[in-house]
Amino acid sequence: MPHLAAVGPSDALARSGQERPAGEDTARGAIRTERRKELLRQRREELGLSQEDIAARLGISVRAYGNWERGLVKEWTDRKLLALAQALEMSEKQRFWMFRVLVDRDPPQTWRPAEGSRLPEDPDQRDYLRDYAALMEAVPYPSFLVDRRWDVALTNSAFDQLFQSVRPHPTALPDDNFLRFVLFHPDAAAVLEDHEPGWCVPLLAQFSLAYAADPEDRGLDSIRQDIARDPFMEAAFRYGVPHWLGTYGQDAAERDGRVLAVRHPDPRWGRARCRMVAESGPLLDGMGFTRITLVLSASQTPHGKPAGAPAARAQHAPRLRAVPPLKDE
Questions:
Q1: How crowded is residue 102: how many other Cβ atoms within 10 Å of its Cβ?
Q2: 75, 148, 149, 154: which has the highest count of C-beta atoms within 10 A?
Q3: What does each C-alpha distance from 94 to 23, 123, 132 come to in angstroms?
């Protein structure tokens, strides 16, 4: 079942008692302020709401909420934070991360993150998924359940083990939204071998097809906006994806059967070959879910290299090597 296994202590807590270099507190404070702004603004835009809308929900002035979003708050009380989470329609996991980012602590002890925040309300469907979670847990390979936006509903222990070293992130955890993790988490390349050409561009191709089919979907549109804010991902989306689809065809964007590679934290796996297997069925399909299993093999990578062989590094390679060079206009 979904949980918060990837949640570790904040940097501030992890470094408590250690001597910090001069100026580090100032730098960390600036980074935290930017993360606060990004977290609240991004969630509001995901909902398609204005600052006026959120202010009305909170019963405060637009100017006051604007100060909240800019981090100009004298004190973030629990009452204020929980009201903000409700106004922004945050899931329980999102509330957890809001507390961690804004005030560097967990929510009050009277609140506990409940599992299954993305599971359907229908009791029969939830009962089915509880049994399905037990089935996933019996699989020795990383397995997770996603919807068409790549929001993750269920994971098994093997999935959590693969991503156990991933640091906390407010919007791009692998067990929250897998596409956001691949595209935006700074630790993604440490786990996903050949991260740029092997993972980013094919998943961007899958996203481009889904977005083209339903550009009005708020969740997909939110991801598109975040791609646009990242110049490297925007270049990959606008130029790399059409080039890739033109070369390999739209069938290549299918998730099922794709052969990739990962760096597993368990030395028994190491650099492992990984085949992505996508499965569904009438009940899962009716709930909008697809099960993705990463079938691992430690024998060799997709390029035939031994599992422990060092990866070759391209000289002066751009961040997204799969993006073709632009012609001079």
A1: 21
A2: 154
A3: 31, 24, 24
